[in-house]
Amino acid sequence: MFLVQTEKDLLQAFRPRDREKVELPEGLKFPLFVRDYFTWVEPAGTRVFLLMPSPGGGKRPMGIAFRRDSPGGGVASHMCDWCHGYGPTNEIGMLTTDVNSKRRVGVNLCLDLRCKERLESVADLSGRHPRELLQPLMERMLRFAREALKIEAVPEE
């Protein structure tokens, strides 16, 4: 759970290399209270942005700018590596982000990063509490930041 006071604070959550790519959603109001994570897709649909707690448990959130590969036209189902939901290629596919100027990593995810909504639906249908399913999701997101992007904590500025 975290609070983003201003637009500047939100932009500061992203790595310097990603800040110029961030296009904030229209009508976003501050302060922004975030219970688990916050995500949005840019109007052109080529990037999706994720704001989540810092991997090191710091006070500042961290942001990741993903690039969406164009979805294939096939009917094959894919599984999201974070929420383990299944869907066609226009719902689940490869999202990539730069580690540095020479290395890019990708992960198979819900293309709109609405994993939370999927898991809340599963919890409702199964009679479980959503928190039971959201905790592992958050752990997988944080593991991606630590292992793939080598981010241990967001530095305080």
Characterization of the model:
The chain has about 160 residues and is of the alpha+beta class. It has one domain. Helix content is about 25%, strand content about 30%. It has a 5-stranded antiparallel β-sheet with strand order 3-4-5-8-9. Helix 3 runs antiparallel to helix 4. The two termini are about 20 Å apart.
- Uncertain segments of ≥5 residues (pLDDT<50)? none
Q: How big is the Rg? A: 15 Å
Count of β-strands: 9
Q: What pattern of helices and strands is seen along the backbone? A: EHHEEEEEEEEHH
- The pLDDT mean sits at 89
Structural class: alpha+beta
Biggest sheet, strands in spatial order? 3-4-5-8-9
Largest sheet: 5 strands, antiparallel
Task: Work out the oligomeric state of the chains in this entry.
Answer: single chain
Strand content: 25-35%
**What shape does the CA trace take?**
globular
By DSSP (H or I, 4+ residues per run), the number of helices equals: 4
Total tally of structural domains:
1
